[in-house]
Every structure is written in C-alpha cells, then in structure tokens.
Write a structure and sequence with these properties.
Layout: H1 2-11, H2 52-64, H3 66-87, E1 92-106, E2 109-126, H4 131-198, H5 203-237, H6 272-293, E3 298-310, E4 318-328, H7 336-403, H8 408-442
Antiparallel strand pairs: 1-2, 2-3, 3-4
Helix pairs in contact: 2-4, 3-4, 4-5, 4-6, 4-8, 5-8, 6-7, 7-8
C-alpha cells in the first residue's frame, strides 16, 4: 500500500520541462572585424597604457569604490546563504523548558501542583529525494554567481575610471590648444588694431579679428568647468570627496597598447557577466527540481529526552522521552504545489533568456569596439594629414595677407579650420584610447572562469 501511494504521488508530479529552444545560440566562428597580431589580455590590463597615475587611480577605485564594496558585501551574504541550506541537511537540537502551576479541588482537599519539565528535542528531515541537497547546490551556484557579479562590477569600475582619466587628459590638452590659439589670436588682434590705426586695414577686418579672438576665449571657461567636473567624477569613482586629481605625463604621452583579442569561442569563458548568467541558470534549474520534489512525501524524525519535576506528592524526578516519525504526503493543496513549479519554470526560462541576452550583448560590444579601434586609427591618420595641410594653408594665407594679395578673411578661415582640426585630433585620440579600454572591458579584462 505505501508503495502504491508513492507511485500515485510520483505520477502527479508535473512533467519535466526543458529550457525554451529560443534561448539557445551558437557563437560565431570569427569576428566581423578581424584583428592582426592581437595581444593577450592581462588581468591588470590598465598597466599596458604606461601611465602610473592611471594605474594608481584604477587601483584606488577597486579598493574604495562604493559599488565594488557593495558587490563584495553581496558575496558575503550569498556565502551565508550556503550555510543556511547546509544546515537544513543536519538535525536540529533545541532545549525546551516547560513549567505549569495548577490549583484544584480533589477528595484530599485543595491541592497545588507545580510541574517543571526541562528537555532536549531533536528533529530531522530525511532527504529521501535529494530536495535539500539540490537547494544546497543551488545556493552554492548562486554564491559563485555573486562572485562573478562582483568581478563584473570591478571590471566596469576599472574601465569607467580609465576612460574618465583619459577624458580628463583630453580636456587638459584641449585647454592647452585653446590657450595657444587665444594667445595667437590676441597677437593677431594687436596687429589688426595697429594696421587699422594706420589705415592699412578696414574696420570690418578689425571686427572680424576681434570676433575670432572672443570666440576662442569663450571656450576657456567652458573647458575649465568641464575639467573641474571631470576631476570630481574621478574622485567619486575612487571613493573620495571632490578635489584635484594628479595627472601623469599627458594625453600625447600615452602610447596606445596593442589591440587585444580572443577567439569568439573563448569569449563566453572570459566575461564574468556571462558566467554569472550561466550560474544563475544552473541554480534556477536545481530550484525547479526541488519544487517538483515537493510532490513526494516528506519524512520527519523527532525525539525528545527530559526530566519531569512535580512537587505536589514529592515525587522524585521522572525521566521522560519521546520518539516519533511522520510522513507528510500532499493530497490536496488547491494547486499551491503546481503553481510553485510553474513559477520555478518561468524563473528558469527567464534565466535562460538572460544568459542568451548576456552572450549576444557581449559579442555586440566586442564587434563594436574592434570596429571603433580600427576606424579611429584611420581617422587619426587622416586628421594628422589634414592638420599638416592646414598649417601650410595658414602660412600661405598670412603671407598673402601681409603682401596685400588677399583680405584678412582668408587668414581667419585658415586659423579657424586649423583650430577646429587640432581639437578634433585631440578628441579622436581620446576616442581611440577609450575604444581600446572598452575593448579590454568587452573581452572580460583578462578574467577567466573557473574550470
């Protein structure tokens, strides 16, 4: 009869449901933007940029950033969750103390009874079907997932700090170029004023020179404010109050490191966020099986041992004990167990789609970063050639203006074009360095999943 009941209950269990086929994917065999002589990715990849201050800022952020510290606290929380699930596999021992005072009327008259019963109670759930073991394994996987999440946060903070520092150096360089331009236009304005005073040039050319000078000077406070805000952002990333940020040798001194890269098939093991999604998927599958196990009977063992002290008749303490076992088999719960399984199935499916989404996003980020590094390198070559041409053009325009062959407008156009090109060259260099940093981040920053 018990065997028949077990078979009947097992037959009531919902059927196993595999992950949805839409969650599956096949990694590409090669990148759309293949790299040549791709370098390995080191765990301390930021050192490849050769700036000691950049290294110091990243290491400070990894040690003091609030997001990193919060992620580490979540790891500790998950570790304690493992202890909770492990404790469910072991017996629980409790101390109990019962006391009772009664007053009643009997044939002997009014009697008062005081009873005190200290005891030890043991209870244990027999894990016949492995439900508790699965919950423990799920907690272990979730703990490893929080470790991967912590590593993903560290990688994101390191990358954000590195990009913020490069942007700060870019603003410094733009401020330097703008100041040089302001000085040059101030000198040109002085010459225009002298020529206008002698009648060698018109008031229109003088006002044009004044306008170009003011346009360049207007950028100075804008850049200074941007630098102040960027410094404060960097200080926040490193867990400090607003203040000055020490610089290294400057933007032009940073030599772009070799382009890093890995095979597409290796990317899934090099990204902590993908590892986190994979571990959460495995944990959700175990939780789903544990929910299905609730359809099977649960066996509970219990025991207690104690002594009973009664003072009404001056009895000696009496040793009392109890042994028991119970089998709890679900018969009717208004669909509660089935709903729990369906919820677990939905959570497992969400985890499967989250894993696929993380993988797709990882390949997108790598492709975009590889393409950006390549195209920005070509843009830098072109802008350098254009800058050389514009320098010669400005020289020709100034010579023609001094010789009286052209108006001052040609010189102003040449100055304006050269200034804009110099700023564009600085911004392109910043973008290329940031694209390399983004590529390091997209490749997992040297992180490797545990075998």
């Amino acid at each position: 009869m018990p065997g028949l009941l077990l078979v009947t209950l097992a037959g009531c269990m919902p059927p196993r449901q595999p992950p949805p086929p839409e969650a599956g994917f096949t990694p590409p065999t090669e990148w759309r933007e293949p790299g040549s002589n791709m370098a390995d990715v080191s765990a301390t990849w930021w050192q490849a940029f050769g700036d000691a201050q950049l290294t110091a800022l990243v290491e400070a952020a990894l040690a003091h950033n609030t997001e990193v510290l919060s992620a580490a606290s979540r790891v500790e929380q998950a570790r304690e969750q493992i202890q909770l699930s492990r404790a469910a596999l072991l017996p629980s021992l409790d101390a109990a103390l019962g006391a009772q005072r009664t007053r009643e009327l009997s044939v002997l008259g009014m009697t008062h009874t005081t009873a005190v019963q200290p005891s030890l109670q043991v209870s244990y759930e027999v894990d016949l079907w492995g439900r508790l073991r699965r919950l423990k394994e799920a907690a272990q996987l979730e703990y490893r997932a929080t470790e991967a999440e912590r590593d993903a946060v560290r990688l994101a903070v390191a990358s954000t700090t590195a990009r913020a520092y490069v942007s700060l150096l870019s603003l410094d360089r733009q401020l330097y170029v703008t100041r040089e331009t302001v000085d040059s236009r101030r000198e040109a304005l002085r010459v225009a004023e002298d020529r206008a005073a002698l009648g060698y040039t018109s008031q229109l050319e003088l006002t044009q020179a004044q306008s170009e000078y003011e346009a360049a000077a207007e950028l100075l406070p804008q850049l200074q404010q941007a630098i102040r805000e960027q410094e404060n952002a960097l200080r926040l990333l490193t867990g400090r109050f607003p203040g000055d940020v020490e610089r290294g040798a400057g933007l032009l001194a940073i030599e772009p490191p070799p382009v890093p890269g890995v095979l597409p098939s290796e990317l899934l093991r090099r990204r902590p966020d993908i590892q986190q999604a994979e571990l959460l998927l495995a944990a959700s599958s175990l939780n789903l099986q544990a929910q299905r196990d609730r359809f099977l009977p649960q066996v509970q063992l219990s025991a207690s041992l104690g002594r009973l002290f009664v003072n009404s008749l001056d009895y000696d303490p009496v040793r009392v004990w109890d042994l028991g076992a119970s089998v709890l088999a679900p018969i009717f719960d208004a669909g509660r167990l089935e709903a729990g399984v369906n919820i677990a199935v939905a959570q497992r499916n969400q985890a499967a789609f989250a894993y696929r989404a993380a993988a797709l996003d990882a390949f997108r980020e790598v492709e975009n970063s590889l393409s950006a590094v390549s195209n920005l390198r070509q843009q830098l070559v072109r802008v350098a050639a254009r800058r050389a041409v514009l320098e010669r053009s400005l020289t020709y325009a100034e010579d023609r203006y001094r010789a009286g062959y052209s108006s001052y407008l040609e010189t102003l156009d040449a100055q304006r074009n050269l200034f804009n090109t110099e700023l564009a060259a600085v911004q392109l260099r910043e973008s290329r360095l940031n694209a390399l940093i983004s590529l390091y981040q997209a490749l997992g920053g040297g992180w490797q999943a545990e075998p």
